[in-house]
Specification:
It is built from 15 helices and no strands. The model has no long low-confidence stretch (mean pLDDT 90). By secondary structure, the protein is mainly alpha-helical. Helix 4 runs parallel beside helix 6.
Length: 330
């Protein structure tokens, strides 16, 4: 459908090369890119977003309707595609371009509360964290949190609450990576409170997967803060939530269970509960093998090997040195 719309829009621009016609063509290209992206056709998505940028950018100075906002979205969407295809530096170039456009063309009153800028900051920060640039990523996430707090205070709707909780969780992860564990724990608690409120009081269950991730991440922080018992409580909640989502038929959370069981095994190991640790690590390996069988994705093999290493360490500390040696050899 979008391909047919594009054909019509392209022909119309030939006969009517006005700003309005080019604007509509730019939107058509962006919607085509978005549809392709959700279908997993990344090359077509890249083409769609690039054509949208090339069409909208020349008419930006005309100030037609919301060209600035649409162009920022086009750059941000293309940045996402770059990041998903391992072109992280190109992703950073596009997010910086989105910021530059906003700074040059956005009205002053929009700059404090712009949803687009908060999302650009979050997008750019995610790439920076993946590249190990935790300080720069954290600075951007703080800016995003400032904007989203103001938006949520002015209008406490579901969208603003979801975005604020997500930004807080991302910032918590950055702080943990930099070793600021107490700050990370505080941010994670705030994020979790917002997510629980969304689920229990507003009926927004789509956030359950992020809540499970936040619980798991905070459990890891608790382990580093030498609070293993608290970590186990958080993991129990995370595992129960993942099981609930699996029963409901969600398929985007399969990777969460083996991660949670792995962390649970590490905590039991720290507490000297070797049998419980072995049970958890065996369950984690079982989940990873299931993922390997379901997806035929060999990227899970290093995770299975890592679980065997941890199992070997547990067996060694449990006094079963021969079994540990055999497991490590595997």
């Amino acid at each position: 459908l979008y391909s047919r719309i594009l054909t019509i829009r392209t022909r119309l621009v030939r006969y009517d090369p006005s700003v309005a016609a080019k604007y509509r063509l730019g939107l058509a290209w962006m919607f085509y890119g978005a549809a392709a992206f959700y279908q997993g056709r990344k090359d077509d998505a890249m083409t769609g977003f690039t054509e949208s940028i090339d069409t909208l950018e020349p008419i930006l100075p005309a100030g037609y309707e919301d060209t600035m906002t649409r162009l920022i979205w086009a750059y941000m969407n293309r940045a996402t595609v770059f990041n998903r295809t391992n072109y992280s530096r190109k992703s950073l170039v596009d997010t910086q371009k989105a910021i530059d456009i906003f700074n040059e063309y956005a009205p002053r009153e929009l700059r404090r509360y712009s949803l687009e800028m908060a999302l650009v900051f979050m997008n750019r920060a995610s790439v920076m964290v993946d590249l190990g640039e935790y300080v720069s990523g954290a600075l951007l996430l703080r800016k995003a949190c400032v904007i989203l707090r103001k938006r949520f205070k002015a209008e406490p709707d579901i969208q603003n609450q979801v975005l604020l909780s997500t930004a807080l969780m991302q910032l918590a992860n950055s702080q943990a990576a930099m070793g600021d564990l107490k700050h990370s724990h505080a941010l994670n608690m705030e994020a979790r409170e917002l997510m629980v409120d969304l689920i229990e009081n507003k009926g927004y269950n789509d956030i359950e997967n992020r809540l499970a991730i936040a619980l798991h991440n905070d459990a890891e922080v608790s382990l580093e803060l030498n609070r293993p018992e608290n970590g186990l409580k958080l993991l129990d909640k995370a595992i129960q939530l993942v099981e609930k989502m699996k029963l409901a038929g969600r398929r985007d959370i399969d990777h969460l269970m083996p991660h949670a069981l792995h962390t649970q095994a590490c905590i039991y190991h720290r507490l000297g509960k070797f049998m419980s640790a072995l049970s958890s690590i065996e369950s984690s390996m079982k989940e990873y093998r299931k993922l390997l069988g379901d997806t035929e994705e060999k990227a899970w093999l290093p995770d299975i090997a890592k679980m065997k290493i941890i199992k070997g360490d547990i067996l060694f500390d449990f006094g079963k040195k021969e079994e540990a040696k055999k497991t490590l050899q595997e």
